[in-house]
Amino acid sequence: MAHSYNFAIFMIVSLLPISFTLTIVKADLIDEICSKTVIKDVCYYALREDPRSKGANPEDLMAIVIDLTQKNATFTCNLVSTLLKETTDPKLKTRYTLCLGNFNKASNILVKFPNLLRSKDYYGLSANASAAIREPSNCDNNFLEPPVEVPELREASDNLRGLIDVILVLVGFL
Ligand SMILES: *[C@@H]1O[C@H](CO)[C@@H](O)[C@H](O)[C@H]1NC(C)=O
Ligand SMILES: *[C@@H]1O[C@H](CO)[C@@H](O)[C@H](O)[C@H]1NC(C)=O
């Protein structure tokens, strides 16, 4: 009896540091990932604020970021559609139409990501993310000459680029 009691204490004392270490490792994982991204705020926001990311491994985090990125691409497509409907400026109509094409293309690439992750096609994931990340910049480049890009579109574009960059960095952890 005394023997098993001692053993129980031994287990508790020896397992405590392990559980602390695991917690630290998990906190570090997000730091390790986000420190390698271009827009760190977007990465921390996406990975830390999502309740699903608690205790998540790199594969779980990838599934979360893919989900957020798809939602963000849809959000951006809707934003551009609204801007297009609201403008009467022919120059802006042309640019918003081009941007809608850019973000639709990004969305159509992102649709494949959950399957690429499920089939562990990390090369495909990385190659497709490299293709998708060009689209927000292609939209921004339509505004190199006045009129300037409205801040909400620029922000949405930066956000989407930032999220796709998290996918590119995360592939290296899988
Ligand atoms: C996307 O992934 C698929 C599957 O691996 C691959 O065949 C295709 O070439 C990739 N697309 C791009 C643009 O890299
Ligand atoms: C998606 O984009 C919108 C607009 O830029 C932003 O408000 C929102 O926070 C973004 N979502 C994520 C998960 O980054």
Protein described:
There is one protein chain. This protein has 174 residues and is an all-alpha fold. Helices cover 79% and strands 0% of the residues. The chain has 8 helices and no strands. Helix 1 (2-34) runs antiparallel to helix 2 (40-49) and helix 4 runs antiparallel to helix 7 (134-140). The longest helix has 33 residues, at 2-34. The protein is elongated. The relative contact order is 0.15. The model has no long low-confidence stretch (mean pLDDT 90). It binds 2-acetamido-2-deoxy-beta-D-glucopyranose (NAG) (2 copies). Residues 42, 45-46, 68, 72, 75, 155-156, 159, 163 line the site of one 2-acetamido-2-deoxy-beta-D-glucopyranose.
From the N-terminal CA to the C-terminal CA, the straight-line distance is 46 Å
Total beta strands = 0
| Helix content range | over 70%
Largest β sheet strand count, sense and barrel closure: none
Helix count from the secondary structure assignment: 8
Average per-residue pLDDT, rounded, comes to 90
What is the overall shape? Answer: elongated
H-E string? HHHHHHHH
Oligomer: single chain
Bound molecules: 2-acetamido-2-deoxy-beta-D-glucopyranose
User: Could you tell me the radius of gyration in angstroms?
Assistant: 22 Å
